[in-house]
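2 proteins. here.
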Amino acid sequence: MKECHHTEPLKGHEETKFDPGYEPDWAVISTVKQERRQEHPPWGFSLPLSELYSLRRARFSLGRNFLVMTTRGGDPLPPLHFHRGGTRELLKYLYVTHSAIRSPMDGRLFLAYPHDSGALSQSFDELHLFDDTSADLVSRFIQDPYATTFGGFSKVTNFFRGALRHPESPLGNRSPQDAHFPHSADEEPGFELITCVKLGPRPEVKRGKPLDNWDQFLDPEGRVTDPQKVKKLVFRGGIVPSLRKEVWKFLLGFYPWNSTAKEREDILRVKTDEYFRMKVQWKSVSEEQEMKNSLFRGNRSLIERDVNRTDRHNSFFSGNENPGLALLHDVLMTYCMYNFDLGYVQGMSDLLSPLLFVTQNEVESFWCLTGFMDLVHQNFEESQEAMKQQLLQLSLLLRALDPELCDYLDSQDSGSLCFCFRWLLIWFKREFSFEDILSLWEILWTRLPCENFHLLMACSILQSQKGELIGSNHDFNSILKHINELTMKLDLQSILCGAEAIYLQLTNCKELSVKVQEVLGLRVPSSFSEESPNSEPTETDTLLAQSEARGASSCQPFNGRTPQWTPPTCP
């Protein structure tokens, strides 16, 4: 292969880049109509690979991949579209022939280094990575890339190492305990060796019994004596239906864990007054006012449309004159008054319906919804940055677990995992039965064993479908179709066991990459800044303080932090 050729795609057809499998309101990328332009025939270009400087993949492609090549003169060429996969094969070929390496600063950028010592030495000189610009730089680099680049690169990948190491080099058998490797992150801040590590065996996990005795966790004044034990029991087996109405209000922050029964009565009274004040605000809007407020009018229109199609199979919401529909509508409208910035976004009705079904109370369901939205509100922001971040985190986890499956999805232009969008947006609401969702959500609300346990569930589902996906040789569209057809066909308990087993398997690996550790909550991201202890108290804290001032007994506050996860004994 001496040249790369490009042919402009035929125009005048619709190309659907992403079909999420549900209402188009949630689509990340819409269908684009290309203008018909037949007067210009297809054209192409050629480029000697000796003139190739870099290739860039689509940074966040939710559809088909494409590559943009840049010449050594700095000129970008028209994009190469890969409608049936092939980007990885091209990069692998360039890796062998031109030592194409992934940039340590940009995972989507690949730099081409021909097997020419002079050119390589010149490239290092231009980057000013090293003080020594003598001719023996390349030979020293080949003999010991880590010692030579340790001060110049913040990251060294195994891809980079393999591209420039001589095949006969003894470095091939070097262990991570070698003196040239950093022994901990503290010894060299910012340095990370990214390699494919071999995971240990995946342990067997069994589910437990649901929480069925609430009174045993309450002291004489009604405080929860051991919140962490409660959360662990809920994570292990869920909650019996008769206790959900009470326990959910603690899991979602309506009641503090350290509140007494008397304090909870005060909280409910104040929160009820606050709810109806907000409800009166939108109820009192006249038709004339509404005609002049497009935002209010738009929220009402969306809510009315979604309410009429949310969980209508459930008896609580079935029928045309069902009072449950009116409650669903009123709570969502009141939430728009509570959170003006976010308003109503499609999918919120899916989050509210189980809350309303369990609490059977307008006020309590509203405040439980605000607690739930505190966990997932970023999913509904217009920028969708949080959703993109979760898809990237999911990709990181799946890559660590199953590189073969990731390679296959990449080859079918499905490596972005966009078909998991709905799973993460509304926490699998449409993938499991209504009763299963009640169990799943209370488990996820415990935030055990980590905040991203829903991503581990997604990994568990994908790995359970690996044989079907790879064995049937699916393309992008059929992969999307297969995933959508899993609705109501998944066994929740098996997926939960698989997700927890994945967590234990990953956390038992001592060579896990820093990024994966951050996703699992094992390492605090460097950009994370803890909340100031002098931050403003919440309204609930104020109510508790007022209650204590009236003579209520004082109690030790619960710090709210998730403890270190204690894995179960695996057979």
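next one coming up
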Amino acid sequence: MMVGGEFEIGEVPFNPDGWGPPDSSNLNLNLPVNVPFAPFSRSDKLGRIADWTRTNFNNPNQNRSKNPSDSVFDFSNDDSFPSSAAADDDSSFRLVDGKPPPKPKFGPKWRFQQQRQLPQRRDEEVEAKKREAEKERARRDRHYNNNRSNANNMMRREPLKSSVDIQPEWNMLDQIPFSTFSKLSFSVPEPEDLLLCGALEFYDRSFDRITPKNERRLERFKNRNFFKVTTTDDPVIRRLANEDKATVFATDTILSTLMCAPRSVYSWDIVVQRVGNKLFFDKRDGSQLDLLSVHETSQEPLPEAKDDINSSYSLGVEAAYINQNFSQQVLIRDGKQVAFEEPNPFASEGEEVASVAYRYRRWKLDNDMYLVARCEVQSVVEINNQRSFLTLNALNEFDSKYSGVDWRQKLETQRGAVLATELKNNANKMAKWTAQALLASADMMKLGYVSRVHPRDHFNHVILAVVGYKPREFASQINLNTSNMWGIVKSIVDLCMKLNEGKYVLVKDPAKPQVRIYEVPPDAFENDYVEEPLPEDEQVQPPTEDAEGAEPNAATNDVEEKEVVAQA
């Protein structure tokens, strides 16, 4: 509390003649010295602290640095204030942050901008800098993650090994890049059926109504035998070759591998035997062609450890096991079958075999060159008194974090998205299935969606949905050109027909998109050929001939639970 004398305001004169104080000439007041005052009316402006209406400030093209008197706070030229020490003090006053805002380093030049922006407040500038720093940090993180993903993909591709050990005595004759395959085209006439063997069971159409909400458990068929017989071990193909029915012989599995070679990532190999004027395409015993690739064309790397349940090898064994059981579960098992001209050529009498029919078909490649292939169909359906052949295959979901799509949530509402994801991750496998359906002239191909009961349980599975597609429409949907498929086969056949008699092997390079041709010894891949043996848990039992060599015993039993554990 201040203590002192009273504060005297002084005399306030009254002006009866108008507004403002009276004329100073009529007043006898002791006014302070050097206090500026000018008479004014109501329309006159009082002294200004800052003048924002000056024309020089609104003209951005004028350089103020050369004329500091243009400051908005400089009233040295104002007649209202006489020149004095106070005016000098005012001329020295400057705005703390009066510099113009910095121009952006990037972005368009605003040529039509007329008004100059006011300087930002200090706190707004700090916030803007923080936001820019966050954006820059996020950009660096994305760049780092992309580089890390690419590095992981490179690490995943690097350890891929060749499907067959290249021996020092093998002679490489040629290597063909996949880029040349995309330009090939060849049209073949409609094939003719030479022979149909086996028997088919009818398809159970109730499986078309399965949804993830009423899923069905995948059953095991341990008593039914499945056959994976190569070309030269097929007694029917031997008979057709002796009858000189064709020049080139193969199976639908081998042909589809060649036709879809540009889509393949993993290594594969096909044995080529030139005998006289005939050409035989074979697969080795225990070849990778007997298994199914999983996530072959995916960008998400799979675990490298072979004993991991999600490694490429373990998933291939699991996929083969699923496909065998699925192809038998979706049938009507009431004993009714459609039998063909000859029984299953690989089954013994009284043996229970899987539902399959073999169509031995012949295509004309040239005036004096024909190709015979053994094609498979797994079921038949009767609609309007017309029988249609079906192929049955199953896609398997092992862990949704690898594909990014949860089938149980998306199959009902976004089935197209699920199919698109599978086409991206398994482009080669689905193209081969489509090619096999086209070779067999199947009327419909059924695709099943089979998932694990739990992501860490690779023994128990459930069927979530079954969808049917017409092969030709599906081929156009996945951009599979039949003319290009046959162009690849025709070019490889022409190349191999120029070789001398002997044995050769086509090997897909594990690191590059190309295929190589090696000349191998005549006893290569035979029982007496010395190679480094595979471990027992990696060996697949090959088809072996009986003592008399008359008929192969190529039955391979369904993969049981313990066998999957051993192989995985």
